[in-house]
Amino acid sequence: MIEGFNFWMPNCFTPNTDNLNEIFIPKGTGWVEKNYRFEIFNRWGKRIFNTADPFKGWDGVAGDKIYDCSNIYYWRVTVTDNIDEIHEMKGHVLLLR
């Protein structure tokens, strides 16, 4: 039996060192690691976070810059399901501190 493809992404997160909701990361089932890409963009379209590791999420920091609280960021995730179909998901997230 093949596990069905499901995708879930929160619409806000709070990287404020209280150990609750610190990392912004997609969740789901029926994925494989092949072709995975997770990107975050600021409101001007500049990519500020990028990973090919499906276990790595965004903590609101890029390099040495802590990004603004109460601001909207845009995300794009490319993921391959277990029947080798590629899915591209897009949306936005509110960062709250």
Question: Describe it for me?
Answer:
- With 97 residues, this protein is mainly β.
- The chain has no helices and nine strands.
- The strands form three sheets. A five-stranded mixed β-sheet has the order 2-9-8-4-5, with no helix packed on it. A two-stranded antiparallel ribbon has the order 1-3. A two-stranded antiparallel ribbon has the order 6-7.
- Strand 4 and strand 5 (47-51) form a beta hairpin.
- The radius of gyration is 14 Å and the shape is globular.
- The N and C termini lie far apart (42 Å).
TL;DR?
The chain is mostly beta strands. The chain has no helices and nine strands.
Name a few traits of the molecule.
97 residues, mainly beta, five-stranded mixed β-sheet, two-stranded antiparallel sheet, 9 strands, 51% strand, globular
- How many DSSP E strands? 9
The number of helical elements comes to 0
Q: What percent of the residues sit in helical stretches (DSSP H or I)?
A: under 10%
Distance between the termini: 42 Å
Spans of 5+ residues with little confidence (pLDDT < 50)?
none
Please write the string of helix (H) and strand (E) elements: EEEEEEEEE
Strand content: over 45%
Q: The biggest beta sheet, please? A: 5 strands, mixed
Rounded to an integer, what's the Rg over CA atoms? 14 Å
Rough shape? globular
**Computed structural class:** mainly beta
Strand order, sheet with most strands: 2-9-8-4-5
List the helices and strands and how they pair.
Layout: E1 6-8, E2 12-13, E3 27-29, E4 31-41, E5 47-51, E6 61-62, E7 65-66, E8 71-81, E9 86-95
